[in-house]
Amino acid sequence: MRAEDVLCPTPAGLYSKAGDFHIDPTRPVPRALITHGHADHARPGHGSVLATHETLRIMASRYGEDFAGASHTAVLGETARIGDAAVTFQPAGHVLGSAQILVEADGLRIVASGDYKRRADPTCLPFVPIPCDIFITEATFGLPVFRHPEPEDEIAKLLASLDQFPERAHLVGAYSLGKAQRVIRLLRDAGYDRTIYLHGAMEKLCRLYEEEGVALGDLASATVETGKKGDFAGSVVVCPPAQIAERWARRFPDPVACFASGWMRIRQRAKASGVELPLILSDHGDWDELTATITELAPAEVWVTHGREEALVRWCELQGIAARPLHMVGYEDEAEE
Ligand SMILES: [Zn+2]
């Protein structure tokens, strides 16, 4: 069997002819395997979905219980047979419930890793290296300029600012799935035990994380209808990134606009979006994590997708590893980082 029969890129996403299924399809398909709940990977309207318990819950929370014709739970580490393929889900370390998918057919092993990172994250299971012939890697931060600092140091910056400006509210822009909960958990781990306030768009997923065993401490809704502006002095308010520059932000006392994202590594971008305190915090591997992962797995071949494909392909070739860019469209590297 050729690799292309096990998995190959198509306009609808990665397709397995051996198993007649798609991985993270970008349009409705009869049978979808989903790596994680971010909107560009997990879309509604498929005939059936196979994903981890947490990812299925996230999809139901975002799209409603009828997000697919049928849903099936993938148990991490257990192999299921689909047509002529065998599939196994293993943790990807990206967000709660995120998984890599190993597809095996005719002795050939291909790993579709979805989005992943290698740094410790208290809100999800760590990435599990899976020996394989072909490793499909993301390349969101696939340039040597991207080297993420330690998350604890970024959180320390936020805590220092809270100390320095006790009269100002700190609005932390963070994506609602993964980043928001990670920021909150990191604050707790750093000893911050005050109430953290949430924009309405964060509430459902924070509750879901807590129900799945990720303790987030004392949370409250960031509504001012019942209180005074001054109530939020010195508080942390977590909100969608787009809100930090919006009218919504003006209800808080002299807000400090913070944004937790790997993109904050680019200073001009932080400046352009009106961010006063950029926090470089990413749920994707940086250049060192991507290259270290490929070195560790030592696959015969690497396929590179979404992001800066060419630099990572070139790096692989210099290491003597065959590599190709997949040029798949429909995966946003900024919508939900
Ligand atoms: Zn993602």
UniProtKB/TrEMBL annotation:
It comes from Bauldia litoralis. GO terms for molecular function: RNA endonuclease activity. Gene3D superfamilies: Ribonuclease Z/Hydroxyacylglutathione hydrolase-like. The lineage of its organism: Bacteria, Pseudomonadati, Pseudomonadota, Alphaproteobacteria, Hyphomicrobiales. It comes from the Bacteria. This is Putative mRNA 3-end processing factor. InterPro entries: MBL, RibonucZ/Hydroxyglut_hydro, Xnuc_lig_assoc. SUPFAM superfamilies: Metallo-hydrolase/oxidoreductase (SSF56281).
